[in-house]
Design brief:
Layout (H helix, E strand, L loop, with lengths): L1 E7 L8 E4 L8 H18 L7 E7 L2 H4 L2 H15 L2
Parallel strand pairs: 2-3
Antiparallel strand pairs: 1-3
Helix pairs in contact: 1-3
């Protein structure tokens, strides 16, 4: 669904931060923006579960377009487990 990269910051901020890199190969601007909106919303819902020191960068795949939102949330749970708290 997406590749996730986690980096712990030395200077801890208020909360975790999200970065998105959506390649043009996924589709036009409308499709890329739709993926970004869905991933931002999933991150917003689960932001409190990440420790405040984390920077997370997601590189979505085309499968994220057709995936139900519950599946995107499950993928975020795996990222949370990967990054720790």
């Amino acid at each position: 669904m997406f590749a996730a990269f986690c980096l712990a910051r030395a200077a801890v901020g208020e909360s975790a931060r999200l970065g998105l890199t959506v390649p043009r190969a996924i589709g036009g601007a409308v499709l890329r923006n739709r993926i970004k909106r869905r991933l931002r919303e999933a991150f917003r819902i689960h932001r409190a579960e990440f420790g405040p020191q984390w920077d997370i960068v997601l590189n979505p795949r085309r499968a994220a377009l057709a995936a139900p939102f519950s599946e995107i949330e499950r993928a975020f749970q795996k990222v949370i487990e990967k990054c720790g708290h």
